[in-house]
Amino acid sequence: xxxxxxxxxxxxxxxxxxxxxxxxxxxxxxxxxxxxxxxxxxxxxxxxxxxxxxxxxxxxxxxxxxxxxxxxxxxxxxxxxxxxxxxxxxxxxxxxxxxxx
Length: 101
Ligand SMILES: [Zn+2]
What we know:
Elements: E1 60-64, H1 78-81, E2 87-92
Antiparallel strand pairs: 1-2
Bound molecules: zinc ion.
């Protein structure tokens, strides 16, 4: 599966944490998996939408090798992608169609 680039709608914004006033739309922070490698995640977000330019439909949730430093690190890529390293897993976000329920 190919994934798109980091979900950045406004290029001038810096990478950050979900609650930061300046962040990319797709910046949702870190999710910690349990001892079996399973993570569960629920969130409410004011930027992400299901329609329009901020839509997450057909985008991906990506798991990176390193924890996201939320733009606060001192690495050259901290302000662009949180120095999170290479992609090690992903899942596509799609609408659930009622005919398949
Ligand atoms: Zn970002």
